[in-house]
Amino acid sequence: MIAQRIQFDSVKSASEAIDSLGSNNSQPMASRAIHINLIMRQVPGLDAKSIKKVYNEIGAEVAISRQAYYEDEGAVTDMIIMGTVYQHREARRILVDVQHLKPYIDAICWAIENSEEVTL
Predict the structure, then answer these.
(1) What percent of the chain has pLDDT over 70?
(2) What is the CATH number of the domain that holds 86?
(3) 22 lies in a domain?
(4) What is the phi/psi pair of residue 8, to 5°?
(5) What is the spatial distance between Cα 93 and Cα 87, in angstroms, rounded to a whole number?
(6) SS3 assignment, position 70
(7) Are 81 and 38 in contact (CB under 8 A)?
(8) Would you say 50 and 104 are in contact if contact means Cβ atoms under 8 Å apart?
(9) Helices 26-33 & 85-95, crossing angle to 10 degrees?
(10) Residue 6 lies in a domain
(11) How high is the pLDDT of residue 28?
């Protein structure tokens, strides 16, 4: 038996690899195979903490400033949002009706689909 690391660059490539094994459930699994990290800048602390809470509940992670986490008045923070494609979609599903967070969720979805990677 040999175990090796494998990395996929898209949901499509993950789905194709899963299909090649003879699996009949590749689409849902493929969205869990792709991990995407995002950075969002200058988010009001309370909004950042609300988004962090949802991501944490679904097994993903969001890094925010200490001031935002402890809800210091006037806190504004950058966020690093870490999750699989599936987790990002799940967060969107949960937050879709929270109107004041919709612009952030829309920005996250746009970044997943359209933006290029940056190095910090």
Answers:
(1) 98
(2) 3.30.1370
(3) no
(4) -110, 145
(5) 10
(6) coil
(7) yes
(8) no
(9) 100
(10) no
(11) 85
